[in-house]
Write a structure and sequence with these properties.
Elements (H helix, E strand, L loop, with lengths): L2 H8 L4 E5 L5 E5 L18 E5 L8 H10 L7 E5 L13 E2 L5 E3 L5 E3 L8 E4 L15 E3 L2 E3 L3
Parallel strand pairs: 5-8
Antiparallel strand pairs: 1-2, 2-8, 3-4, 6-7, 9-10
Length: 151
């Protein structure tokens, strides 16, 4: 990639990692982020592979814990993993959960701000809108374009 393209991509930087009062490490705005903006442009550029959880059983238990912590294990016991494995995790993996989110995950895996996010503010998403393990905390869920409430 040419240097000028890298510099252009750097101009699209909105966030950094910092200690979070919510949970360990969080993602914080380094400048104001407009409503309806993807604060992580380019995160979908890497390849992802669906893997059966049973195929991961021989991995170190700490690696398995990280997979459970950072990725969505589907009800059919599959998980999407970046081609670079855990080394392929980007800053978006550190967005913390909130029942009053300022960010949402789109169907394609990208993110979109729900409102203007001010410089210094932590970015948060409701995990229950895309991870069934957290569905109880999501007042309104969406699947395949249909909105419903968890019973």
């Amino acid at each position: 990639m040419a240097e000028d393209k890298i510099i252009e991509k750097l101009k699209d930087t909105y966030c950094r990692l910092k200690p979070s009062e919510i949970n360990g490490v969080g993602v914080f705005a380094i400048r104001n982020i407009p409503k309806n903006k993807d604060p992580f442009p380019g995160i979908l550029d890497q390849g992802w592979r669906e893997i059966k959880v049973s195929d991961l059983k021989n991995l170190d238990k700490e690696i398995l814990k990280m997979i459970d912590d950072f990725f969505v294990i589907e009800k059919d016991n599959t998980v999407l993993i970046p081609e670079l494995g855990l080394n392929g995790m980007d800053i978006s993996f550190f967005v913390n959960h909130s029942e009053r989110p300022n960010l949402k995950m789109m169907e394609d895996g990208s993110f979109l701000t729900l409102r203007k996010i001010k410089k210094g503010e932590e970015l948060m998403v409701c995990y229950g809108t895309y991870d069934w393990k957290y569905a109880r905390s999501a007042p309104l869920l969406e699947k395949n374009g249909q909105r419903y409430r968890k019973k």
